[in-house]
Design goal:
The protein is of the alpha/beta class and 234 residues long. The chain has eight helices and seven strands, in the order E-H-E-H-E-H-E-H-E-H-E-H-H-E-H. It comes from Paenibacillus segetis.
Length: 234
Amino acid sequence: MKTLVIIPAYNEEGSIASVIRDIHRFAPSVDIVVINDGSTDRTKQRATEAGAKVLTLPYNVGIGGGMQTGYIYAKQHGYEIAIQMDADGQHLASELPKLIAQTEQYDLVIGSRYVENTSYRSSLLRRVGMVFFSNLVTLVTGQRFTDTTSGFRAAGPRVIDLYAKYYPMDYPEVEALIYLKRKGCRITEVATEMRNRETGKSSITPIKSVYYMVKVTLSVLMSAIRYDRAAVSK
């Protein structure tokens, strides 16, 4: 099936080339598009030299805008599978075949660090946040999720179409999941190994983490209210 890997990247010159080379090694038949999200370093140059298609945004729009750009590109070019991967090397290209295989049965496949025991270890604060959001999304959707913040995801044609039309803009992983459940999509998780970022540093500071938890929690609860009202009106 025609498959595209979407990599949103902001100032990732230190890792983007190795990420692309690993994809070529483990999944040589897929195409790669890097969404260069207003980088001020050599991300575009490194990605181009490594053999990826690069779309450069004129300024930094954030992860949500970058991902939607990738899904619009996937839809316009007739891709049947679109896979999200981080540019910092956290997601292993060797796990791509595992996600792709499940897209025959599901609209979205999430690479999870916690559905089975893996070698990934996160900080206590990050782990608390992941457990909180997993329980919240499970409560709202009625489906058990273990890794709602994972950005390692493979989407089939239905999700490509939905995400090309709408993708949450700010810290979007959890909201994007709720959105698909509201649309009746079939979603599953598969166990995948992940590692800590290879270079650079995360944009998530302690203050941003608090903002993230409050903002996403309110968004999930609002989505649940809208869903319940829609169900009652039918």
